[in-house]
Amino acid sequence: MPKIRRLEFLPAPDRLGAPGAEVHVLRADLDAPRWPGDERLPEDERQRAEAIVRPRSRRRWIASRWALRGVLGRYLDRPAAELRFTTGEHGKPRLADPTGGLAFNLSHSEAVALIAVGSNRGVGVDLERIAAKRPAAFYADWAEREACLKCLGTGLSGPVPSEAADLAVQRLDLGPDYAAAIAVTGPPAALRCWTFDPPLR
Question: Which pLDDT tens digit goes with each residue over 134-149?
Answer without folding.
Answer: 999 999 999 999 999 9
